[in-house]
Amino acid sequence: MSVFRRIIYHSGWFILLGPLIGAATAIGVINYSPAIIGGPDSFLFCFYRTIPALVIITGWIYSLLPAWLTGVACALIPLKLYQKIINRMIFCAIAGGLITTLFNLVRYGFDISILPLIYGEVLIMLIPAIVAGAIMGGVITYLPGLREVKRNNK
Known about the structure:
The chain crosses the membrane at residues 12-33, 53-77, 89-110, 122-144. Keywords: Cell inner membrane, Cell membrane, Membrane, Transmembrane, Transmembrane helix. It comes from Salmonella enterica. This is Inner membrane protein CbrB. Helices cover 71% and strands 0% of the residues. The protein is mainly α. It is globular and about 50 Å long. The model is unreliable at 149-154 (pLDDT under 50).
């Protein structure tokens, strides 16, 4: 399979499923440890409790770019590392975490002085990115479209 085809394949699946896995993880983090986002009285916790579907949709839209870049990074793993599932999962988890962190730093103009103010937001994005990267790295070879179809053209 060519590198271009692997990039298209991985990008498509990471964009489609990666943010949904991340949104489900974020809901779990918000639900089971609300102290990360400021406690049960915070706006994000009340927003999540009121409209959880909107949290999933906005989380999916907001994480499209980091998911796409993580898919491209996963597609560019050398084949020796790519063939073992644990290597692929670790690499995709690290790539997801790094790309999401860089995405947040770019979004806030590399102003590190505001990191204590957005600590909860960064954690709510970083934890799901690492989990989604690891899960997608593990299941990407089992999703349809990777293996080329051999047709008997007579």
